[in-house]
Design brief:
Elements lengths: L3 H7 L7 H17 L10 H10 L5 H17 L4 H13 L6 H14 L6 H10 L5 H17 L1 H12 L7 H17 L6 H9 L6 H17 L4 H12 L4 H17 L6 H11 L4 H17 L2 H5 L14
């Protein structure tokens, strides 16, 4: 059986008949099964074609080896990346293709080692894959887009615009994926956070899914830290949630209000302090504990409230002073 180096030399010949091509493909497959080298450091167009054909093989171990070989080929040969990317995009666009999860993973590796090859078309395709019914595809698309945000900040602004509508998607999993990527986007491009995005994220704090609420909270915390000029807007939208009949919603809003006050002490208005004092006296610990904790933080930041709040009608804050 041919070794990897011999295969590489054989594949350098431009002309092969069907019998020769079949023999080479079987040789590549056998080398992959044995874990031997297949010349990935010097891949040819014919070798790449054979590896793509082997991705759909019924032998799971062989498919995995072909996937790994394609990842190595992309990383070691700059010139081969374009042809591989085009082939991957074609596979991912075909909803009936059985190797789409593998194609998605190879594309993720391509983006990691060749971020300069990412185009608007690739970003658009990946955004669409966030709604894919195959979680093995949609999850990899999420991680790949996070990598795009980290390595290509100039694309992050457009990426945020494409993801914003997904925050309101009725499918919680789609919302979580979009929010996860937006968290990375806000880190590199804070200006990508818009009032509409903030409004949608605050409303998702009412969601019945803890995963959706938690991810929305994470993104809002990023926005609060990166965009101080948006803090008043966020505080205003949280006010409505503080009086929500759902204790979980009220608690989430209260915890976020702590971040708001830390970022802008002016957000600790008399009315909000009065609301927090009332919530801290609720019998439901899920509401009273976070409210009491936020009041303590407010007193740490604005100690004068502990002495003057009672005279302004907010109620005494003496009980929250350490």
């Amino acid at each position: 059986m041919w070794r990897g180096e011999a295969l590489d030399r054989a594949l350098s010949f431009a002309e092969m008949d069907d019998l020769e091509a079949g023999f080479v493909q079987e040789s590549v497959a056998e080398c992959l099964r044995r874990g031997e080298g297949i010349g990935a450091d010097r891949p040819t167009a014919r070798l790449i074609e054979i590896l793509f054909e082997l991705l759909a093989d019924s032998d799971f171990y062989l498919c995995s080896k072909a996937e790994y070989a394609l990842k190595r080929a992309v990383g070691t040969r700059f010139g081969i990346a374009s042809s591989v990317i085009d082939r991957l995009l074609g596979l991912l666009r075909d909803p009936d293709c059985t190797v789409r999860p593998r194609a998605a993973r190879i594309l993720e590796e391509t983006v990691r080692v060749r971020p300069e090859r990412v185009t608007d078309a690739i970003v658009a395709l990946l955004v669409g894959l966030l709604r894919d019914r195959d979680e093995n595809v949609s999850s990899v698309a999420k991680y790949t887009l996070k990598r795009v945000a980290d390595t290509r900040p100039e694309l992050a602004g457009g990426l945020a615009g494409a993801l914003e509508d997904m925050l309101a998607d009725p499918c919680g999993a789609v919302c979580v994926r979009a929010a996860c990527i937006l968290e990375a986007v806000v880190v590199v491009r804070p200006e990508a956070a818009t009032p509409q995005m903030v409004g949608t994220l605050v409303e998702r704090l009412r969601d019945s899914s803890d995963g959706v609420c938690r991810r929305a909270q994470y993104v809002l915390e990023r926005v609060i830290g990166a965009r101080p000029e948006m803090v008043p807007q966020i505080a205003g939208r949280l006010d409505a949630l503080l009086d929500d009949v759902d204790a979980k919603v009220c608690a989430r809003a209260t915890r976020l209000l702590e971040k708001v006050v830390q970022a802008d002490s002016k957000a600790a208005t008399e009315e909000r302090v009065r609301t927090l004092v009332r919530l801290s006296q609720e019998r439901n610990d899920e509401v009273s504990r976070p409210a009491g904790y936020v009041l303590k933080r407010i007193v740490e930041i604005l100690p004068e409230l502990a002495q003057g709040a009672g005279g302004r009608g907010a109620g005494s804050l003496a009980f929250v002073v350490p």
